[in-house]
């Protein structure tokens, strides 16, 4: 029986109980939510809305990154009849303000990172949403009687340079697309048990309906787990897919392209790219198992459970689809837009048609107009839109005429009813000869050229008609676009050939949150370069610097386009922490992997631009041993500690422990920061800690030293090399040590610290970065501030006294109490504090634990 509203799906959440529903990373920690926790917190959030006087039809703005709390806010609005108004995480503040004013929102639910100050609204923060609503009952909520035509959400689709217009999506719109999928999924639930739980890595914003379908609506039908990720770096994505045992990646086409380039780059570094491409070409007609076996090394990189890509949000380049399918991965495409509630057609995962965007969803009608435009109708089509502070019928406006929604897209149907996307109707270029040129065909030919990193083809005016003009982003060192375009022309028909081209002045195109190039800005650039706009317009485009905007966001200073010679430290005042943030932001923005050593050596904006044009890929330099935190190593470590390490520490000098009462009632994990005196510091810290902490501790050690032990120089003798390797194994296994480099690679070290904390381990760090040479503390490195902020753990300051005097006297043993270990009170880090100020505060606290500084 058809459901009357979407909230009836919430009943299934309790049936799933403690099965994991959502996983996302916050800082360096991983947060997991079960289905029952989601359902209970949704009810609490609905009661919070009720207490605030938000009732049926009132609007709530949701503005933040993908996370479980975003899902809770959305479902909580639906449960009490409120209307969710999602806004892209990367949306400009003025756009969010205009949207809020249009729909008269009564509450803002957002991330702390967004610029929400201009919105005169009460605020709930996503990262503390659970705590904010915890006082409410989690008992069943008396939801209003909702029907299929009641409004669920309003999604604004226009960019920041246009007046916002919202698409009003009802419960029935979503159910019309969800019900056919649910019916088909039920046929395969028995087979799904063999792979349960299916894990979906969703990289599409929840502010988009496609992201909602694959992040909130479809996975629960399978009891699946949805993983949200905060990085678009291809290496990070592949590592997450493998570590989290992901089955399906949900992404936009550009991410599939970035992953393809990552795989090819790895083969190129190994000197095997040509061989790989020959094998890929030869696998076209092989059966699935033979293709899988031929490329098993690639499958190993993704993990054995990874099976498929689901691509949406834009058209997928056929070459990218073929690339992944030839290696034995399924590539599932669909077609739809916000006005069609994400779906019109979709490929069946077990009956894929290459190059097709699938067959129609049951209940949807479609026809092609005389010029090939795709026209659709059905319950999934939004019948109203929001503009000018009110909801208006879409008939006669917003693309609906005579009951049919005019998509503006061109398509073709084959004899089996599969739909093929041919491009946007408004983007079709009509040449002076009257021939129609589809930009997607030209872009595909250009992307096959190795010099082209990305491209967009637009129409340039010519004699009342138009001709194609290619806008290129070339790889570093590619200085001859003419020969590149000519080779692409050899793949095209005569009437399609490109006679005009321009090189984009920045390192990437301006993009939407789904990574689509902003076509309007690119057209303005073409018009300006071809003399069709004023000098003022050219200057506006010239100042559109992506790198400048990233630096401005990190430093909090609005920055125009930056000169190549601008010095990062002197002119832009980038601190070491700012550099870490910028490195991560650049990798995510451009979806590349940047070598940390080269990045650290960069001193000017020009140096950064060169790296972005030709990012240096390198193998990980440090090994992070997860096996030390698994059985049976954990048990062996415990036995060895109490049989050998603990007695040896007590024999060297039984420590006097001060402030142990500060740990009464405190539970782990903790971030433990201590001064650094000798290499046996950790032995005294472990001996002083209560057993509940002592048994689960991960220790950060100088990364460069650990790496030298694991990979001793070839110039050393064979006996010396083996001795170093044995030392490495023993110190890592018996003390649960992991590398914390001083130069490069510390981002992965911080992430591993977060993983350790997720497993219940307290993390010990010596923030000075070196042992004292004088007995006095060295300044704490700023990185400890970033780690403390993003680990979100109570921080325990510890000070060791008396050990340096023994070291200076050359004594190996001391009387009991000669060494003092002092515990400070655990502190909670302010999330809004700057990393540098956190580091200085922790340094001050550790210093204060001694009566005087010697």
What's a concise summary of this model?
With 854 residues, this protein is an alpha/beta fold. Helices cover 37% and strands 19% of the residues. The protein is built from 31 helices and 34 strands.
- Based on CA atoms alone, the radius of gyration comes out at 29 Å
Oligomer: single chain
Q: How far is it from the N-terminal to the C-terminal residue, by CA? A: 79 Å
Low-confidence stretches: 533-544
Q: DSSP helix count?
A: 31
Q: Using DSSP, what is the number of strands?
A: 34
Strand content: 15-25%
Shape: globular
Main sheet record: 9 strands, mixed
**Share of helix, binned:** 25-40%
Strand order of the largest sheet: 2-1-10-9-11-12-13-14-15
Average pLDDT, rounded to a whole number, is 86
Structural class by SSE content:
alpha/beta
Question: Would you give an account of this structure?
Answer:
The chain is an alpha/beta fold and 854 residues long. 37% of the residues lie in helices and 19% in strands. β26 (465-474), α16 (481-489) and β27 (500-503) form a beta-alpha-beta unit. α2 (35-51) crosses α3 and α19 crosses α20. 42% of the residues are buried.
